[in-house]
Records
---
Amino acid sequence: MQGLDGGGPRSPPVPLKPSISRPLEEKEFSSEVREVASACMASVAFMLGGGKRDETSAAVARLRPMVLEASAEFQAKALGTPRCPVASQGGAAGSRIARGKHFFDTVKPLYFERLEAEKVELARVALPALGLAGTAEMLRLLPTKWAKYYADPESLLLPRTRRARGRQRRKKPAFLVEGKEYAGLVELLFKRGMISFVRPGAVRSETGLFAVPKDSEQRLINDCRPTNEKQVDPPPLELPGPDLLSQLQADGPVVCWKYDVASCFHRIRLPEVWWPFFALPAVSADVVAKTDFGGSRTRRSVKKGMWHPVFTVLPMGWKFAPHICQEIHMEVVRRAVGGVRFQDLICTQLDRRVDRPRFLIYLDDGAGLAPVSKLAEALELFGAILTALADSGLSTKLAKNLPPAVQVMKCLGMRWDGADASFAPPVEGLLDLMRVTEQLVRAGWACPKALQSIVGRWVWYLLPSRLALSVLSSTYRFAEVFGTKAEPVALWSSVAKELRTLVGLAPLLRCSWRRPFLDFLTASDASETGGGVSVSRSRADILRVFSAELWSYWRRFPSEGQFDITADADAWMGQRGENPLVWRHVVSRKFKFKQGIAVLEARAAVDAVRRVLDLKERHRRFSMVLFVDNTVVVGGLTKGRSKSHDVLVQLRFLAVYALVYEIRLLVVYIPSASNPADEPSRAV
């Protein structure tokens, strides 16, 4: 068979260490591991069958050894023991993972209940400590651009005609506070410095109040829909989610750290002109008189009439609050003295290399990682950020701060492992989600809101491997059809199949930061008659640096700038004294069936990944660059989903390879005229 270099014997494979020195035979694994692997293989077969068949194929058999290995690692993490695939755990412990009737029947069946906000309980509500609320002035800490933007509330209001239409559709805001507790809550909020009082004539919007669970406590949320409906849409907010973190590239173990700003939203004080937009239901003068409002004039000034409590701090539930919180956090770190460089921020505009201390900001949370050799610099960066936050009135929770170290920590709902340089869903959270999902499927019906919550948790865990989102198709349609219903609805069989597929794929949901780029580039293309794949080799070190810099073209389409291989790549190589790229055609095949061009382009992309994997040695955990000239396919591969079912089928093929082989796929759009795979796609 022709090698990747286009002819002659195969070139040496990329020097990646195989995951195991010798593939273990299936009988060497415990029965529990084999049972977990069987469920996983059923999901893999569903994906490879395009959602239409479950039979085992040659491709499934080829993948089974690696699935067994992943299942053994997953079971070991779930049981909290070293990986031992031969010895069965046995008993109840082993049943926790594999045996369905023990594994899935131990969770309280909440899958059919409506997910509603809770009534505020004064004894459980979590508030800032005395003297901590409103310690950070909003306009003083915002960047100049955004300080001007938020200075005048009137500038953010919609035109009156649009507000009138919104008012006709408006529902009364949720207010879940018992009458007896409301007076006590108002007094407590005033003592903590979170509210003031205004007369009814000064109120611009009356908001609601409710609570959501926060461990054993409650988080206080304002129902700001009356205010939100009057205002323009907030500025776009880009946060570093799991999909971005999965793209980081490390060469070995890393030190990681995190911190959490205590009660961040309620630490930010609003300008006084904003207070009337966040009023609570009115209280009597007797309630106000119990506070120190007005000082010595309290009894005279509030003797009669009604008063509205108004929030003086950033309310959770206002649609602008996340943007304000993120911008303030970023600006405080930007102003920090010593140790902080914004070239080290983890964001889509900068590189993904962990060759220096890198840090991220996610609303009230902060985290980072660095090579072990850069521990001293990481400690300096960590200290500089905490000092800057404290000086700005945004001190952190000491109990939740973790200074830089090679450690395992949970941050942004994911498990960071510094020693293994890995990033994955926490096993305990994943197991709980698997149990609840399986119970829901067994019941055969669910409240749509509860299903949306479960699917939302799955989506967050799938983001490090975005192609796995291709599992969900009918589930999204089901949510669109029944999303507004309050009563339970029978699940479609296709929805149940997709949810069970997610449960089976759970052992494969892991991500390593040690996935080096291959020493060749790949391009795919398709015409109405056939598909082609081309590759280009060069010096391994040069191509890996070049590939890493291509992240700047991630999610960029023709309207936002595009990459031209014949110009940009050759210019980059020439600046470093290298020869221009030479492309060789390795796949040129005729399609048997006529399909839309987007589907054919997706099939060509599958051919490209299969061709890369078609090596005698089994190597895993690598990154590869794929150039594609079809925006539909680039969008689907980037998002992990597509509205076209035929394209979605091809994405599922790629998802299986990406999950099993732990491939990180960087897809870059290029113009058709410069696609080197155009020629082999038409030479059939």
---
Amino acid sequence: MKADRISWCAKGLVVGALLCLAGVQPALAQYNSAGSEKAAAPAVVASVSSASASVAAGGIGSSIGGGGVGGFTAAGAATTNLRRYGSGASGLGAAASDKKFGVWINGAWTHMENDFTNTKFDGDAYIGMVGGDYRVMDNLVVGLAAGFETLDIDTKFNLGTIQTDGFSINPYIAYIINQHFYVDAFAGYGMLNTDVTRTSGTIKGSYDSTRWTGVTNLNGQFSATNQIKLYPQIGILYVHQKDEAYRESGASTTAVGVNYVSLGQARAGAKVGYDLGTVEPYVGARYQYNFVNPEVNLGTVASPTKDRDSVNFQLGLKFKLSSSLTGSLEGNSTQFLKDTTQYGAQGALKFAF
């Protein structure tokens, strides 16, 4: 019996060595059919879209002295006066009343990991936006932003990769309701190109995508004291992405059909800042509920649990470099997702003239 065991072990070693010499990947993919990279799409689209919405909200908020990138306009008062648009104010991010134009640049990095066996992946997304706006009236700002994104994902469930590059055009508007509240709306149309591989690069593919994004928020600004500031926000994010059909190349030439991903998310949260004059550290939290949840259907193999709820936590610093130049830095992490870990950082600069 012992001799038989030794014989079988020896045979196993020989087979393993031959596989290595032949360049065969001994690891087995958990879910590796044609187009299997789509299994990661719902989580990836949700993560990237949420980060993009935060980047856009930061740019829009800075344009009216809002809490997104900093700025409250009441000096020495218990309430924040948004409507005055910084006239006579000395608060962080306050802008002179005669400055009608603004330009801003925001950037974000997001790291994503999924631990569910049949959808396991990890990777990073890099998002940037450059915007410009005009103050039509004291309480109305309109603008246009250009967005860029790069995505690099390792899909371990099919021994593959996803690499995406994209560009978007994003008009936006912000309206100051009264001294405490303003509403903003943002629309985006994006065009993306994605290269995918599976089975250790022996099978490849490439496809184009279009993405429609809509975001609207009701934002508030209040002062508990001259130093303590509160920035509540409620909003809705909706995303619809279409991935075009393509045909694989290499070890497989299978045709992969069109794929759709939709996300509808209600968001509510607040940031609390402490005004130190030229800098304002803050902490924040945002509850996120997916009322339209992206579908993940892996057919005969087990599919991941649908996460509808999550909370995004923020820790950041707003700063004022001059009367015209303000900015912010922030770290954030999304928690309470069953199989997904997500964290990142973002920064912004705004120049008014």
---
Amino acid sequence: MVVLISLMSNAQTVTTFAGTPLTNGTTPTPVDKLSALFNNPWGIDYDAQGNLWITENGNHTICMINATDKKVYLRAGSFGISGFANGNGTDARFNDLREIVVNKNTGEIYVADRGNNVIRKISAFTNINTPQVVTTIGKQSTTGGFANGGPTVAEFNEPNGLAIDANGNVFVADMGNNCIRKIDASGNVTTYAGKAGQPGNTDGSIAIAKFTNPASLDFTPTGFMYVIDFKDTWNNYVRKIKNGEVSTSMIFGMPNGVVGGIAIQGDSNLLMALNNCIRLFPGSSYYAGYRITGKEMHLTVIFFTFQSTTYVYFLK
């Protein structure tokens, strides 16, 4: 999720990209994106074809807004039914879905299934009529744990944030274990940074650095990683990992106002999961420690200006 800080006040105009504002629920799919109902949409990300993928935390489902017909399709899970199961599309079950990322090269989708303490992998989308296969990375449990190893051996504890590097490695903000995990292309899990079970805010090499409740993370176009640490209400950290070294870039408090994930559409459109719908801020400018140009990107820290109003967003 993201928290919002308003830096300047000014009237603004936004439009609804998908969903019905302030109304949660479910809608049989396919349905036009503006007629759809969502239930606490959390993570959003684009694939290389321009389809928008959405995790519905309240519905335990994964939906897609098709780039061609602009309709919402249920692609995995069953509305309102939580649980744990692998399988084809709607046969799969999830519990407390969080962030979602798409490998733009392979089309494979990764989802943080926090309630099951695992990462779910979904096969690439090919067409509307072909189900996508849901599999699991990690050992399912309701209590969580910590273990490195293969996809059936590894354990997570409240995985929340996800990011993919240029080589297709998936990085996990493993909140309950206070560390950053890495999943390679074969599904093998290692600890990338931090020390499991040892919270802290120590900077230094990734071998000695410590994190406290790392909630979200992402890469800049040049390959640096930003991590959000939520220590407590008013002492939270933006950490940067560059060339194997962890440093603290910012300390911030938690203001009022919590909204959902964000994604960039083209050069200048910001999409945000907010109030049970997806809102569109057109013609915006962005700065997140780097300038975003022509890339669809799932961000961790973003300075966002729309019609002379500037905001700062932190993913939670």
---
Amino acid sequence: MTGSQKSRAALPLTGTRGPLVFAVVLTVFCLGGATAWSSMVQLESAAMASGVLVFGQQPQDRRASRGRGRCADLVHEHDRVEAGQVLIRLDPTVARAALDLYQGNLIASEALIARLSAERDLRDDIVFPTSLAGQTDPRATEIMAAERRVFTARREQLQGQAQILQQKKKACNSTSRSAASAPR
């Protein structure tokens, strides 16, 4: 036997049949499991659609029938109306809830802008606008306190990173000086 024949005889012949069979079995197992699972589990789904509901031959908007903000209809179809006459009385609850939501978003946005400005300008503290600092809303004080905590944490993080970089700079400078002064 020559040298190449000895090395071929020492190594076992491997084929691709084993890995391919394993891949096929694994694929069939996974797809079968997914199919079995999907046939046994009942998934609930909702379909959103707009439309008009008709009760007793009078069409009504679906949103109005759910009671979203509509309190009372003061006129009906085919009634004569005068200029300036109130047609619908709206429930103020929906408008108040939306106003409250938007005021909270405004407070949060103003506080965020103040914090980001303080970070950008490298100030020691946040200067909140007077419109925000003078509010009696408890959300404003909570949001301002939260922004101060974030400001302090980010400033400490940046200071720590700056110290680490200064130490690395000193270490690099000292190794470069020692390498330059070493005899060749």
